[in-house]
Each structure stands twice: as C-alpha cells, then as structure tokens.
Amino acid sequence: MPDPPRITLLVDGVEVEAPHGAMLVDAAKHGDVEIPVFCYEPKLGHPVGACRMCVVEIEGIPKLQTACSTPVRDGMVVYTQTERVKEAQSAVVEFLLVNHPLDCPVCDKGGECPLQDVAMGWGPGRSRSVDPKRHFQKPIPLSPLIKIDRERCILCYRCVRFSQEVAEDEQLQLLERGSSTFVGTFDNRPYIAPFHGNIIELCPVGALTSDAYRFRARPWDIEDAGTVCTLCPSQCNIKLTVRDERIERVLARDNVDVDDGWLCDKGRFGYQMAESGQRITEPLIRAGGELRPAGWAEALEAAAAGLREAGERTAAIVGGSSSNEDGYLAQRIVRKALGSPHVESRPSGGPGVESRRTGGRGPAGFLRQGLVELSAPRLAASVSDLDRAESILVLGTDPLHSMPILDLRIRKAVRLRGARLAVATDRPSVLDGGAEETARYAPGFVGGFVSALAAELGAAGYERARGELGADAERIAGALKPGSTVIVWAGPDARGLVGCARALRLEEDGAGLIEVPEGANGRGLREVGCLPVAGPGLSDVEQGLDASGIRDALEAGSLEAALLVNADPIRDFAGGPAWGEALGKAKLVLAVSMFEDASTRQADVVFPAESYAEKEGTVTHPDGRLQRLRPGTPHPGGVRPMWEVLAELGALLGEETGVESAPDALAAIASEVPFYAGISHEEIGGTGIRWQERAAARYWPRVDDVGARDEVPGREVEPAGRTAPEPGDTGGRAEDVDGVIRVGTYRDLWAAEVTDRSPALRFLAPRQALELAPRDAARLGLGSGHEVEVRSNGTSVRARVSIHERVKPGSGFLIEGLGDRAASLRGELVEISKAGEPE
Amino acid sequence: MSAEERRRLIEAMRPEDAEPVPQLHQVDVPDELRERIEAAMAKYPQVRSAALPALWAVQRHYGWCTPEGMREAAAVMGVTPAYLESLATFYDLFRTSPVARHQVLVCHNISCWLRGADDLIGALCEAAGIDAHEADHGGANSPDGEVFVKGFECMGACDLAPMASIDERYYGPLDTDDARAAVEQLRAGSEVLPGKALAERPAAGGPEPDPDPRVKEVESGDA
Amino acid sequence: MNNSADSSSEAEVSSEFPYLEDESVVAVQRGPEPGGLGGAYRAFGETLRGLKTTFARIVEGPVTIQYPEEKTPVYPRFRGRHKLHRFEDTGLEKCVGCSLCAAACPADCIRVVAAENDPEDRVSAGERYAEIYEINLARCIFCGYCEVACPFDAITMGHEYEIADYNRDDLIFTKEMLLAEPLERTPLRREGE
Fold it and tell me: How confident is residue A462, by pLDDT bands cut at 50, 70 and 90?
C-alpha cells in the first residue's frame, strides 16, 4: 500500500510533518507535542471524541476541537498550550475527578494509570466539588476473571467499544443515562467472551482489574519480559510481568503484523500453567512401575540406552508448542542417530491428508508436492494482508477456536473496510454473522467442497458439482474477488485449493493463503523437518509413518520406542485413548512434558519440559514470520533448556550436533533449511521477520522437483470412516436413517491442557457436547442437556446435547481434545441414543 | 460483599451464563410479540432501527421490559439482550422493573413545577399511599399494585400545566382534587378525569366544535 | 650596573654563602635559645589553660553515660527503626500495602506484597492490605523517605537505634515485628535539653 502523502502543519509554532489523514493527536507526536487523551485508542477503530481531554485550538475554527477526531490538513495552525486550551483541559480533568475516588494507594492501576498521569500533568491540582461522589457496590466480579469498580469508572467507553466494535460480542453496554450511567451486562450476568481480558488493559483507570493480578505488584516492583505466546498458532507477541521471578500477568506487546495488540484470554491467563506447582521439575525414570526422580545424567543415559536398543524402530512425535530448535534436534536424533524416518508433528495429518487413505505409506513425492505448492512464498499472505484484501474466505476452520486473534482481524476487515467475507465450514462459525456468504458442507467433506469451489472459480480440470453443493460453491465463489482475496484455511485437501489459488490469482500482492496449522508452531516444525514425508527445508527423505501409522505400528510391535516431545497424543491426537494402548506396548516411551498426563503415565523416562516463558528459541508464525522466544523467568528446579538436553541426548547416541547455545541451534537450522539461510536472532529481533521477505526465500523447493503431479482431480479425500460420503452428497442422506447423524469434530478453544492447568481458566473447561440442528434434535426426541451416547465403528462417546440453530441438518459435532474417543469420529455416520435426562 | 460471598458468586458463574445473541429455540416468544417485532423490523433497512418499537412491544406485552421479554426480542432481532437493556434503561418511558397496572407520570419540569406540580405529586401519592420523594425520584408503585407514580421531565404539554400523563394519555391542568379523583377512578377502573384529557380538547382533535356559522353561510351560498 | 661594582659584591657573597647567587633567599629569624622562664611557659602554658577547664568542671561531677545500662536520649525527630501503626479505635493496620514506600526507598530495602481484604475479617481499612511487609534494616539508610511517601501515616521512623544483630537475616524486619511496640523504649530528649 503506498504511504499517504505527507503534509506540513504548525503545532505551537513548530512546523510538523505528518501523513495526510492522520489524526491531530498522532500528527502532533511527530513534533514532540503531547496532547493528553483518555478515550482515544486507535486500536478500537474510529475515534469517538467522548472524553474531551484532547481539545486544542485551531486557527480559523472558533471553538476548541478534539485533536483525536480531527484529521490534519496542510497548513493547519494548531495551539495546544494557550490559556483557553489549558483551562478547558483542566476543567475536563476536574470534571472527571468529581466522581473519581481518591484511592490511588489501594487501586491496582496506581503507578501505571493514565488518569494519574493526566491529572498530574494537566489537572487543576484541586477539586472545588464538595458534594458526595457516586457510590456503587465495589468491587464486584464482572466475570470470574475481571472485577469492576464502577466508582472509578470515568465512562470513557473504551471497554464498551471493545465489546461492540472489536470483539463484536456486544455483551458489555452502558446502562442508564447521564450521571447514573454505568458499564454493565444484561441482567447482571457475567461477561464471558474469549477476548474479554483485553478490557483490563484498555481501561485507563482502575475500574476493570484482573482478578488474577489484583494487588500482586506495583509497576516499580516488576520487570517486563517480551516474548511470544505459544499456546496457539496466533503466536501473539506478549509481555510478561515478572515479580520475584514469577509471572504475575501477561500483557499484549503490540505487533501490528501479528496480533494488532490484542490477546485472547487463553494467552492472557494461561501463564498460570507455567507457574503451576504441579509441574515436573526433574527427570523421572520408571522403576518397578513407578516414576521416580533421577538425575539428568542417569535419565539421559537410560533414555539413550533404550533408544539405542530400539534404533530404527523409534518414532518421534513433536508437539505443537515445541520451538523450531526442539523440533529440529528431535528429528535429527531420530533420523540421523537412530536411522528412523518416523517423525510426526501433525495430530491429524495436515495438508495432503490423503496419507490417511494410504495409511501414510503413499508416495512421498505427492504429499510433499502439496506442501510445497500451498506454502510457497508466492501464494503466502501475511496477517496484515487481511487489512488490505477485498475479500476473505474462511475455509474449513473457525478462527475463534483455531487461531483466535485472526477472528478479530477478519472482523476488523469487514467492519472498517467492508471487506467481503465468505465462510465455508462444516460447523457453524462465529464469523457467520458478518459474512456475506456462508456455506455448510457435511462434516469431513471439505475436499469435495474445495473441488466444487475450484470448478466454480473456473479452475481447469475440475467438474462443477450438482445440487446444493454446487449452489453453495457458486455463492461462495461469487463473493471472492480474484487478485485480492485472502483464504484462511485449515486441513482440506491440497489439490483443490491449488486450483482455487490459481483461479483467484492469489500470487498477486495482498492476496494469498494463510494456513492455520493444528499446533502452535505447526508451520515451523514442518519446515525444520518434523514430518514423515519431508526433512528440514521440506527436503526429500525416506518416508516415515504418519501419526496414525505410528500408533498402529507401536500397537503391532513393529515400532518399539516413542519419543514424545511436548506432545500428549492420548489427549491431542486422533484416536485418543487408542494411543494409550499403543504407548503401553512400546518398550521405551521417552516423554518430554511439563506435567504428568495420560502420556507420561505410559512413559519410561520423563524429561521435564520448559514452559514458553522459560524457553529460548524461535517459532514460525503460520504466515512465515520467524519470532523469538526469550526467557522471562528462570527454569524451575532441575528443568533445563530442551535444545541442550536434546543436543546431549544426540551426543550420547553418537550424533554430535555441535549445538552449545540457542543461537547455535538456530544456526544449525539455518544451515539445513535453505529458505532460512543466514537467519539469526538479531535479524529476527523484537517483532520477527517473515522468511518470505528475505532473499533466501528463493530457495523454496520448486514444485517440479518434488515429483510427478497428479493432474486429474479424482475422488476427493475420504473421511476416516468406512461410510465416506459421495461427491455431491452433502449429508442429506443421513436424514433417511432414523437416529443416524454424520458427526464431525472440532477443537474447542478451551479444550486444551492450559485450561485445566490454569486456575483462572478452569471454569471454562468444556464438557463433551453433541451439537445438533433443532430439527434433528426434535426428530431424535432430544432436548438441550440430554445425555446421549454417540456410537460408530465400535467407538462410543458420551455427550450432552446442545442444540444449535445454524448446524446443518444431518450434521453433528463433538469436541476434540477432551481425552475421549471423539477425535476418531470424522464425518462418520453415527448412531445416537439417549442416555440420560438433563441435569 | 464478603470474600466468601464473592468467591461463591464467582464460582457460580458459568460460561453459559454469559448472554450473547440468544437463539430462537432457547426462548419461547409469544406469537403476537414476535409478529409485532418482525413488523417493526420490516420497516427499516437496519435491524437495529427496530429496537425501540421492539421494546415497546415487549413493554405492551409484559407490562414492563422484563429480562425474559428483552431476551425474546433480542432473539427475534438477532442482537444481544444487553443492547436492548442499554436502550431500555436509557429511555425514561421504558420500565425495567415491575410496574403497577396504571402509570401516572407527572411533569415536574419548570412550567408545571411553577404551577404546582409538587403539590400534584404529593396529592397523588397521598391518595395512592406512595412515598412522594421516592415517586419524584425514579417512581414508585402503590402497595396495592394499582398505581405507579413518577415525577417526569417535560412532556411538551406546558399549556396544560400542571399536567400528568395517565396511562399514556395527557391530562391537565390538574389540581389536588383531580389527583385524588384520578387515583380513585383508576382503582375503580372507571373513566379517568372526564373532560380533563388533552384528547378531549378541541385543538387536539377532540370533540368537534360547533360548526362556524359563517362556513355554513359560505357553503350554502355556494350551493 | 657597571662591571667593577658587580665583581666586588660577587666575591663577598660567595665567601659567606657559597651556594647563594643573589639575595632571593631570606634568612629565617630564630627565636631565643631554649631554657629559662620563656622555655617553661612554652612547655606548660597551653596545658595549664586546658587544665583550667578541667578543674573548673570537676565540681559538676561525671557526665559519662553507662551505655548499655543507660541510654542516650534522642531528639523527637530522630530517625531510628521504623514502626508500622494501627488505628487506635479499630485496631486495623493503617498500611494498605500500596508500595509507595518501596518506590520512594533509595536503598531498595522495603518489600511489600499486597493482598485483598476480606470485608468480614479485615486487616486494614481499605480494599487491600500488606500481606508481607519487610524492611531490610541492614540496607536501610534511615533517610525517612518512606515516612514522607506514606499516604496513610502508616509507617513512621521510630526512636529505636539498637538494632545490631549477629545475623544479617535477622535484620530483615517483618510486618509483625514492625507493628509490635519496641520492648524497651528509647528515652526522648526533653524540650530545651
């Protein structure tokens, strides 16, 4: 986007150069003039000019103007220091303080409070008001995470604007009128929404305070440590508030290219997991059926001995929260020291999901080809491209659950610029409301939909679908603008999407694809070689087994050892409990884990894992941005950096990595991943760098080198079950069979370990629920809250019924990641039977 | 609130207690209410423009803007109930707490006040058994649930000062005797203050005045 | 100056002070030789003057303070060991744990960890109270800034100055220690004393 032209204005007699269209408050900063503000917050969208703190005098305009909502013009003459301005500002401060209690020593905001600063800098110093101030009951919980003190509220609207215009949940409103106005919710209900923690940071006074941080520290007691949150693929930039070597709070560290300055509640309160007293802090070895603490030397030796024995019958599972360094070293140990090709980081396969059809034993070239085509720098969109694209397609994922910050970003594009949003998912998405077009396909049928969409977009080699599917695809295709579309997608079949990308000219500037990986660092792990089909830099390697293949091989005994790096396959991977049986049969399970979980219960050696707050290393954002993790707190107990442990383990197994520090590990990655070549911690810096924007991006593998192309888009991906839908079948068939529904699964935002391990978030832990359309529920005689049993292929899951209007009739949805067998149901026809009445 | 109470309050908060846009199947909207709201929605290009008519419909149906009624309206309109509540609490004519059968809004703004609004409120309250101060500051119900009296801002009928709006009809000018009579009539369910209603005034489209003889002349002359 | 005069004076000087080249050196004037009355005065005069004070004070008696048994009184504004205060009527702690003292402390010797009051069982009058309040007296420089910073007059500098100990850890005073009255009060100097 071209920079706006620069204009010159006069602020307090000083010539200031500023971009055209900037608000006066921002323009004045170019001339080092500070204009005080309360309600102005560019992140919240258009200014409202509610607080009147920023009034200035502009030549030619008789009345004082609000600098926050006055765009600058060439030749404007502005005065910010005249008597008139000072009097007005001082009056505004006095007015705000009329009802504001003087309890700064008690208030949590004290010391970092904009009202304190402004009252100090621009206030009259004393109040003339002698009347009693407003009184409210205080502090009362607004939600389990936030307390509200309405006496301190200065009614700046920031929190309400956030709720209305950023998160768009509209639960927070101003109630009553005039001097009785207060911030509240409908019927005094709690304000619970996935992003509501942001209002704590937005509040310019101490009216909204974090329950977890309440009274924990003062600004002068703390140190800030900037790092990156690795609890989900959003990889938001965060600032840890550390006091006495403990994390007390997480704040956003604005990075417009990543998170736009917002955080989800998982990122904001999930730090409690790192501070949990239940963490494993020393290596454990199983002796006589029990895990007992052991020294590092002993544990490393035990692990090395077991791995040496298993040799090439070893498999590694690298969990999504691992850094690039961890993943790289783990795959290097398995591939080079043990000679095993079985390295996996995707819980359910990721792109090129056809591997499931062939049991992970298909031609490696084809699977790599999909990856190479879809992740190519040419087709990559950056997160900030969402701010420019004229249309956005959300395909096969609900960003709120899979990559929450993207949800806000997409809403912003729609709200502020009127971008056209199309949503094509199996499960109703929270973005539906703002979407111009929505399409629902049957669970597990994304491949068919993408092919139909490619055909509607005019891609060569695709046949137009008939019936409802064809009509849906046509509507979606109509909403997309070629050359200016960003597709946010997850998990569908690669080939159809390549066709869509071509037809939509996604290689153009400001258009492209953003893939939402399953793991927080899914993209980074893939690029450093944690895939069964590709080594570091997506290089050609001997093909290994994918996740389900590894599980089956462990179960069958053809694999003997499993290395689980920050991974709990029993909870997170397809198959769930079946992994428990598989790991139970393995001779050696080496788990790297922060907590004792279902997988460590099967482990023979456990290494304590670092939390993201302690880690040093790099991660790769889904849009290719390499970001640095910096240690903010010391390692508790005997926890050691994972790169160090893996390097030592490698050395014990005869693979000398030469890695002696975190930068060494990155250098080793850079030497093997051609498109990361030469990257260093310094270059990544505080805000990261997209590798696509570096010269080394030209070393991305060429599609033609990756193997033969399958030009014929034949039958699309089959879901895991035996009863795969036919192309063109959108699930309507299910209605014919009484009590049979096609069930898909989704990963709920809160179905994660961090929810259980963070006391503040525990109340959000979801219970298994079967989402049904009202019609299906009525047909099956089920009501909200009924207990049901969902059965298919010998798998059975218990769930409560939750009726949802926008669910496509014939579809049902369960939550993944709750440790039951739900994740092995993907697009299968299931039988549902009532197991209990609502509680 | 004690720490224990607060802890229990927080523990009782469940994610499902939050109130996003309710779904239609979660509420039981009376057909008549739904029709009225949908008719209002059909009049405007933006759904939100129908918020005030929708709240009116809720208030007509339930007597006041009940939380359940606002949820129902929100579900029909596809907005959050919080949005409707913010409007309902903003506007004085919407009641957000249970209200007696008959509503008497007494103007206490400058014209009416100068002409004895305070006495009028006092007499009304005395007759209805309501605390006058409470009625003047936010409104109050009579113990028998028949009359609600509230001091109100200017209703634009200064020519009737001191006036009151009784069950959405303007009456004035009123004195203390009228006040007592009105309360009795409201309780009895009979016609209220005959002859005092604005609607009965000729200028307000009340009963036809005797035709102007000159008009007759002209008409007959023409004929 | 002519040449002949120059040569004659040069000869004279060189005979008596051979190292002197001109009259820039001033000869020191010495006092009378030691001994005699003058010598005795010089030896004892100042001593006697000192003794005059001594003898003059003998009548006042000894002023030595027998320190550990007897304490030096201090002035009212003497800055000794800190004290934390409670409200006399309610018995609640005045300190609300705002940490302003810690912010003001130039020696960084105060540590405050606040917590939330239970309105049913209050520790302080406000919403928050100091759960931990520690002063490391080994570091404290007794500047009194904490007292100045305190918005509730919760901390004041006391008169206690006997705070030596055998162990540095024992010099970290906790809230309970600071709230307790010192066992033996230091005498206060009276007005005009």
Answer: confident
The alpha carbon of residue C101 is apart from the nearest alpha carbon of chain A, in Å, by 11
How far is the alpha carbon of A34 from chain C, nearest alpha carbon, in Å?
A: 26
* Mean pLDDT computed over every residue of chain A: 89
Per-residue pLDDT tens for A53-102?
999 999 999 999 999 999 999 999 999 999 999 999 999 999 999 999 99
ipTM, two decimals, is: 0.89
Was domain B102-198 assigned CATH 3.50.30.10? no
Q: Which residues in chain B (54-93) have CB-CB distances under 8 A to chain A?
A: 67, 70-71, 78-86, 89-90
- A763 and B14 in contact by Cβ < 8 A? yes
Which of A102, A106, A147 would you mutate first to test chain C, the one with the most C CBs within 10 A?
A: A106
- For an interface test with C, which of A215, A222, A223, A244 has the most C Cβ atoms less than 10 Å from its Cβ? A215
Question: Which tens digits make up the pLDDT trace of C130-179?
Answer: 999 999 999 999 999 999 999 999 999 988 888 889 999 999 999 999 99
Q: What is the pLDDT of residues A731-774, one digit of tens each?
A: 444 444 556 788 988 999 999 999 999 999 999 999 999 999 99
Residues of A in contact with B70 (CB under 8 A): 186
CB contact under 8 Å between C118 and B1, yes or no, is no
B1/A137 CB distance under 8 A: yes
Can you name the residues that pair with A831 across neighbouring β-strands? A740, A791
CA distances, A647 to each of A333, A654, A676, A769 (Å): 9, 10, 21, 43
Q: Report yes or no: B25 at the A interface, CB cutoff 8 Å.
A: yes
The pLDDT tens digits for A635-692 are 999 999 999 999 999 999 999 999 999 999 999 999 999 999 999 999 999 999 999 9
Q: Which of A103, A139, A221 sits opposite C99 (nearest CB)?
A: A221
Task: Report pTM.
Answer: 0.89
Q: What is the DSSP string of chain B?
A: --HHHHHHHHHH--GGGS--SPPGGGS---HHHHHHHHHHHHHSSSGGGGHHHHHHHHHHHHSS--HHHHHHHHHHHTS-HHHHHHHHHHSTTS--S---SEEEEEE-SHHHHHTTHHHHHHHHHHHHT--HHHHHTT-EE-TTSSEEEEEE---S-GGG-S-EEETTEEE-S--HHHHHHHHHHHHHT---STTTBGGGSGGGT-SPPPPPHHHHHHHHHH-
Q: Which CATH number applies to B3-88: 1.10.10, 3.30.70, 3.40.50, 1.20.1050?
A: 1.10.10
Q: How confident is the model at residue B214 (pLDDT cuts 50, 70, 90)?
A: low
For the domain with range A733-836, which CATH number is right: 3.30.70.2570, 3.90.950.10, 2.40.40.20, 3.40.1190.20? 2.40.40.20
H or E stretch at A189: none
